[in-house]
Model the fold of this input.
Amino acid sequence: MKLQSEYNSQASGTHKFYKKDHWSKENLLYSQPYFRLKKVAKIVNTLSRGIECDLLDIGCGPATLAKLLQKNINYYGIDIAIQEAKPNLIEVDFLENQIRFKDKTFDIIVASGVFEYMGMHQKEKLSEIQKILNKNGKFIITFSNLTHIEKPLYPSWNNLQSIKDMKSDLSLFFRVEKHFPAYHSTQYAEVNNKFLKGKILRKFQMTININIPFISPLLGVNYIFICSLKPEFD
Done:
């Protein structure tokens, strides 16, 4: 019932968007690489095939992803709260402003743990991302599985929808090449997650990029979508 009431609240136009003062503190919780980000980095490094390319990290926080990327990837990031000013990082409220990095376009764009906070701006922001993705480029996005057995809800989330609905909106602007859980678990949080403890379990989950019928919809915690431009947008 709680999830339904949250959906009803969203449908009625009630959205709360947190600003810089909130994210300046929240972002620090992600200063060290965590499992989902490591998996995204592994995918990015594989997709780049060792060729020099430009990557934009949307909602980059403390730019933790940059620590995990191969040297052939030129890293750029945007966020509402940048902890340390650098030439390759821009502080911008991309809900209030267009998603962009000056006049650059990118070979790879990542939005990890971002769209849970986009509310009614989802289609608008996906359209903006589509416009700065190079031909043959890849867009990698993660989104929380709200049909998870634990029914996770965070107070700051304002974009409550199913994985199916997220894929539907993505398909308006991109070709969804593949989507799968970042990892399978009955525990939503990564912290102290027994399914991610131990080198063998972590290594196994890092290499599993598939949907398991009937199981993934219940246990998949965060889904990873790998997208490319639709032919009409090339």
